[in-house]
Amino acid sequence: KVITDVNVVIDETTLGYQPFGEVEFVVDVTVVGKKYQISGDQVSKDDIRVVAVTEDVNRAGTYSLKLKAEAIDDNSVFTIDSVSRETISVYFDKVKTIDRAIEPELITNGSPIAAEGFTYKEVNLSESLVTITGPALEIDRIDKVVAKCNINEPLVSNLSENVQIVPVDKNGSSDFKYLEYNHRDVVLSI
User: Fold this and answer.
1) How many angstroms separate the first and last alpha carbons of the chain?
2) Residue 80 in contact with residue 29, Cβ under 8 Å?
3) 2-10 and 26-33 beta bridge pairing
4) Is the pLDDT confidence value at 49 over 90?
5) According to the model, what pLDDT value does residue 10 have?
6) Residue 90: strand, helix, or coil
7) What DSSP string describes 18-68?
8) Which of 58, 63, 56, 45 lies closest to 8, judged by CA?
9) Are 84 and 125 in contact (CB under 8 A)?
10) For 56-87, what is each residue's pLDDT tens digit?
């Protein structure tokens, strides 16, 4: 009998590494037993435990974890024949949290911020700090956090716009993964 959608539990790691990204997996498990004992609802996914073994996780990185399926009850009336997947791929790292100042970044494509005859004094943000939590390797790459605002034509009046905050590394890249923020948007006012 095939038991579908059995949740995979990722083992705790001994060195304090946490899984990031996709961490919820389901598999199908084929069980073998006497037909009258495993047919119908007599054996369900609640009777099976599938564990992703983390014994080889000893530093940050992506690991291919072997899956181990077993009956929850030692006196079960079935045996595990097979699992639809042998491994899952999971990224591990230590959790780190930082607070960073948010810097406004005005993108004007070469035109002035204010139209001729107008001036602007300051750029204000509704929030000055952001708290970011995620994998230590990703957090350590963050050089600054910016609130980018595109100004397509010179301004002739005050501007107040909701903009997303973006972490940036030393190379200007913002290709971060697995980060969580206490807020993702700020109001930028000029």
Assistant:
1) 65
2) yes
3) antiparallel
4) yes
5) 94
6) strand
7) EEES----EEEEEEEE-HHHHTTTTS-GGGEEEEE--TT--SSEEEEEEEE
8) 45
9) no
10) 999 999 999 999 999 998 888 899 999 999 99
